[in-house]
Amino acid sequence: MKRISILTLYIASLAVFLSSCSKDLLDQNNPDAITSEDLWKDSKLISLYLNTIYGDRPGWDYNFYDNIVDDSRSNWTGNEPNNHIYDQWLDSDVGGYTAYWKYEEVVRINDFLANIDNAAMDEATKTRYKGEARFMRAFLYFEMVQRYGGVPIITEPQKITDDLNVPRKGLNDCFRFIVAELDQATAELPADAPRGRVSQGAAMALKGRVLLYWASPQYFTTDEEALYKDVETISPDTQKPGAAERWEAAAKANRAVMALNKYDLYPDLTTLWIDKSEANKESIFEVQYLKGYKTHGLDALVKPPFLGAGDGGQRFPLQELVDAFPMKNGRRIGESGSGYVASNPYVGRDDRFYAFIGYNTAKTKGNKGGVLTEISLETYEGGRDFGNMDAGNTMTGYYTLKALDPQNINYSYRAGSDQPWIEFRYAEILLNYAEAANEYMATPDNSVYDAVNAVRTRAGITVPLTYGSMNKNQMRDLIRNERYVEFCLVERKRYWDIKRWGLAEEKLNNVKYHSVYITQSEGGWNYSYPERDPRPLRFDKRMYWFPIPGSELTKNPNLQQNQYWPLPAGR
């Protein structure tokens, strides 16, 4: 398969490179050391250099972004997610999962792009490599802007004699730079690329996401000097003067990906992340793994202790997420005609619910004594998978099933799983398009209904939305709920959606979320829904933007700190 061949080539090239190193080739006193000139004369070393840039892309993380919103909770009360939701941040610096000041990686890509034109290889390969590196640089800048607002834009290798104290660029200028980079990358990239490599479609998908953010309330500002949107003015209003043009641009960018006719929704949500073949047309760009070389720990992370392997206690879905899944007829559980029965709450839900959520009596598989074992979850009081949260049992009454490999028994703490991290999938393109189009149109047209219906039909919903049945506000609410359930848990989108919509104070401040408490009775099950969070969550307005790391502010006196975050001592 192409996927395996790419990874094998990478591993083989690394092995050849290392096996030739009887001495330290990076030692400049070593006459055999590889110089920069040597690197750009050797196509294999250039390919290896590009692979290191690919290797910098983050994939599966441990538990952070899912557990700080209304998706799920972590058992381990002293870890970063639980610190974050109660605003226990360090003022001068933010580390761990929130830190994303990636200029070391920018430096590497700048060096690559500065030298590739003079490399010893054919022009077509050079052009493709430039497109791949440019995509990666645009992605790095977008994720920094996503967190901090405007950041320094550095595109050339810096010399020690240069002024290294580069100030931040305006928020809008940063977005324009990223979009221009992606347009150029699209022109440089091939239309087709094996899974795991960047194609034109991947660059176009990232552009669609970038433009969606630029139009969203957290990022929309007409102040060209602004480094960030003033947190006092962030609100859920999506219709500020000038916003319609940005929404339309986002809709067109996502529509362009749809028009490629290269991607499609994968039919089975239980195997979407397991099928690594070229037949899986939903994956647009992904970070790949391969057992024996590079793995992650998703399967171990969320298993009940009975099937555990040195990990667990993470990503327990909240009741609010469970309640958000529609019924098979497409109605929400509280809507008239939904067919929802409170005494039997897990019957008749859409297919995503059964693929993503481990509820009481749901079946799951895993390692028990080295044997693949199937169990029915017992999350009721007194059940095998209930209570003793210190051991990793659920704290909400639910477990995560999404993206798990049901045949894997080799998982362990942060290792043993090799499902790809699908960064862009076609469902996002459809919902990005639907959201952006709905926002710039006076009323949603048929194309908005078609995009949403495609996602819902794949989810097993049997009654499509009727053209013209919803106004703009109703469609907005529905699309946002679709994003909530479609991308829930392991895909790490909910936190950024809530913030970009200007809803963080509503969703993440002075609220408590809920779990399910189930007891057995002679007639079946009894359900109640107690508060899960021990105290109200806290979201201070300043948290819309992460603080510039204090260590960077100390090194660069030209950096301005974000609103309401202090400067480090000495600044």
UniProtKB/TrEMBL annotation:
Q: Which domain of life is it from?
A: Bacteria
Q: Which PROSITE patterns match?
A: PROKAR_LIPOPROTEIN
| Pfam families in the record | SusD-like_3, SusD_RagB
Task: Provide the protein's localization.
Answer: Cell outer membrane
Gene3D superfamilies referenced in this protein's UniProt entry, alphabetically:
1.25.40.390
Q: Does the keyword Signal apply?
A: yes
Q: Entry's InterPro entries?
A: SusD-like_N, SusD_RagB_dom, TPR-like_helical_dom_sf
**In terms of one coarse class, where is the protein primarily found?**
membrane
Ranges for domain SusD-like N-terminal come to 26-212
Name of the molecule in the record: Membrane protein
Give the source species: Parapedobacter defluvii
